[in-house]
Amino acid sequence: MIDALDTAPPREIAAERASGMPRNSRIVTAANTQIGLGTLGALGTLSSQIAPALAEAEGAQGLAHRLIALLGLDGWLPALLPWIGAAVFLAVVCAAWRARAARIEDHRSGKTP
User: From CA 36, how far away is CA 96, in angstroms rounded?
Assistant: First the structure.
């Protein structure tokens, strides 16, 4: 019987399955959620540059701002942090996109139901 499994040709995959998506897949749902939240996070992080500009315009000097100035980081750190945050969120989106694509490919190839 084991020899029959080794020599049997692969089963054909139905056209409907080959072009379809898994139904009620928790993986696809989670990946879609991560993509949405990561996109919102990246946009929120980039738009957070507005708040420091307003705070500076109003003359607000918090402890964090004073510490950054004391360490000499006030020239480049405020401009860099939103980009770092956006990069992290975009990395989450890319990972979720890849997980979603892998799950759909597994469904289409017949590896998973």
Answer: 10
Tens digits of residue pLDDT in 58-71: 555 566 666 666 66
Q: How confident is the model at residue 41 (pLDDT cuts 50, 70, 90)?
A: confident
**pLDDT score of 9 more than 70:** yes
Residue type, 43: L
Q: 13: closest CA among 105, 101, 108, 102?
A: 108
What residues contact residue 35 under an 8 Å CB cut-off, 6+ apart? 93, 96, 97, 100
The span from the CA of 80 to the CA of 25, in Å, is 38
Tell me the two tokens of residue 49: 């540059």
Listed in sequence order, the DSSP H helices in 1-113 are 2-7, 15-18, 26-47, 50-57, 63-70, 77-109
The model's pLDDT over 81-98, given as tens digits with 9 standing for 90+, comes to: 778 788 888 888 888 888
Radius of gyration of the chain (CA): 24
